[in-house]
Amino acid sequence: MEGWYLSTNNWEPIIMTNLAASDQAVSPAPVSPEHHKQALAIVKRNAGFGAITGLIPLPLLDVFALTGIQIKMISELAEVYEIPFNENAVKSYVAALIGGIVPVSPLSGVAIRAARYVPFIGPLLGIAVVPAFASALTWAIGRVFVNHFEKGGDLLSVDLETMKEQVKRGLTRKGTTAETATA
User: Fold this and answer.
1) How far apart are CA 47 and CA 33, in angstroms?
2) Which end of the chain has a smaller Cβ tally under 10 Å, C or N?
3) Rounded to whole angstroms, how far apart are CA atoms 47 and 139?
4) Spatial separation of the C-alpha atoms in residues 100 and 38, rounded to whole Å
5) Phi, psi at residue 109, to the nearest 5°?
6) DSSP codes, the chain
7) What b/e string do you get for 86-98 counting C-beta neighbours within 10 Å, with b at 16 or more?
8) Going residue by residue through the chain (183 aa), what tens digit of pLDDT does each one get?
9) Taking the CB of residue 156, how many other CB atoms lie within 10 A of it?
10) Residue 55: how many CB atoms within 10 A of its CB?
11) What global pTM score does this model have?
């Protein structure tokens, strides 16, 4: 079980570098090191669960499972930071963040599914890429919410456009350049 997680740990430095320059201007709140450590453990655990959802071979079931894990993760983070949780709001935030990152057109979904069935390389591609991406996406969304909560934000002050950009930066290697870190 440890082996699959080692590959997802490679995303942490990239995502952390890209999230360092936050665009959200929310008044900072004092955060205890214990809360921060607890929040990172929640994000790390749920990123691992996200990787497992990448192994689900049934269309849309993997997306629903991943969304559920991300909603649960944000609920746990809200509890750590003592922020009132609104499940309907978080569902729409997660759907918007995933929709802003992952191509959601039926054609792209069919193409990704079809690639899994290419002899020899398809199953390997599905086993390697999809879980790693699901884990990285969950990690990036979790870190964006941790940053938002630690700056004093709550679920009513979420700026989805800014969060989408932060998650995108967190997932792209291109985002590690100095010019995007200062943007």
Assistant:
1) 21
2) N
3) 5
4) 28
5) -65, -40
6) -HHHHHHHHTHHHHHHHHHSS-----------HHHHHHHHHHHHHHHHHHHHHTT--STTHHHHHHHHHHHHHHHHHHHHTT----HHHHHHHHHHHHHHHS--SHHHHHHHHHHTTSTTHHHHHHHHHHHHHHHHHHHHHHHHHHHHHHTT--TTS--HHHHHHHHHHHH-GGGGSHHHHH-
7) eeeebeebbeebb
8) 444 444 444 555 545 554 444 444 444 556 788 999 999 999 999 999 999 998 887 768 888 999 999 999 999 999 999 999 999 999 999 988 887 776 544 444 555 566 666 777 777 766 777 888 889 999 999 999 999 999 999 999 999 889 988 888 877 754 433 333 333
9) 9
10) 13
11) 0.71
